[in-house]
Amino acid sequence: MNVYAESNYVLELAFQQEQYDECEQILRLAETGCVKLILPAYCFAESHEKLTRQREKRSSLQRELDTEIKQLKKTSAYATRMMSLQEISSLLIQSYEEEKVRFIRYRDRLIEACQLVPLTRQTLVSASVYEPKYDLKPQDAIVFASVMEHLAGEHRQASCFLNKNTKDFDNPDIVDALHQHNCRMIPRFSDGLKYIQSNLP
């Protein structure tokens, strides 16, 4: 079975979010050859950009918090109550470092285990058509174009497209376009794992 995923799959692993365990199990199935995991190469760039934006946001928040802590320390009534705020300030930076390490680790595992759909000129041309046609964000249009481009060469092999962008991809026209290539759209990674497991030989 071909299993397509989008950028949120990478982020779910790197940030260890609510469906992290299911995403890890899907990756292990790919590593053992039980399924073919297919990712648009663009997903790694988009995920890295999200990680960078999060670092900048947390760094800015940490600087503001440190400034407020210094001000509060000047008031004797608060001087002994600063520990929890200082821990939060440290956590903002530490969390990014941990997420960066996880991102690199999962990026390397995914590159080794999955098939990448390259970002080509034709992908961008198709994305420019899909964006207004399905009212997609530019990033989602590129991902969708990558998936459709790969599906076109798979001769209707049983497939599923796992994603977390329900509001973006859960469009009847998108579902129908995927269905024409024997690809099922599944908007939760946990549901995707159940579907994959039910179709394993």
Task: Please provide a written account of the structure.
By secondary structure, the protein is of the alpha/beta class. It folds into two domains: 2-42 and 112-198, Rossmann fold; 53-107. The chain is built from ten helices and five strands; from the N terminus they run βααβαααβααβααβα. The chain has helices at 7-14, 20-31, 42-73, 76-79, 83-113, 121-133, 138-151, 166-169, 172-179, 189-198, and strands spanning 2-5, 36-40, 115-117, 159-162, 183-186. It has a five-stranded parallel β-sheet. Helix 2 runs parallel beside helix 10, helix 3 packs antiparallel against helix 5 and helix 6 packs across helix 7. It is elongated. The mean pLDDT is 86.
List the defining traits of the structure above.
201 residues; 2 domains; 10 helices; 5 strands
**How confident overall, as mean pLDDT?**
86
The CATH topology label of the largest domain is Rossmann fold
* SS-based class: alpha/beta
Task: Report the portion of residues in β strands.
Answer: 5-15%
Report the sheet with the most strands, covering strand number, pairing sense and barrel closure: 5 strands, parallel
Helix content: 55-70%
- How many independent structural domains? 2
Uncertain regions spanning at least 5 consecutive residues: none
Radius of gyration: 21 Å
Number of DSSP helices?
10
Which H/E pattern describes the elements?
Answer: EHHEHHHEHHEHHEH
Number of strands: 5
Gross morphology = elongated
Through-space gap between termini: 10 Å
Can you tell me the CATH architecture of the largest domain? 3-Layer(aba) Sandwich
CATH class division of the largest domain:
Alpha Beta
Task: Give the strand line-up of the largest sheet.
Answer: 3-2-1-4-5
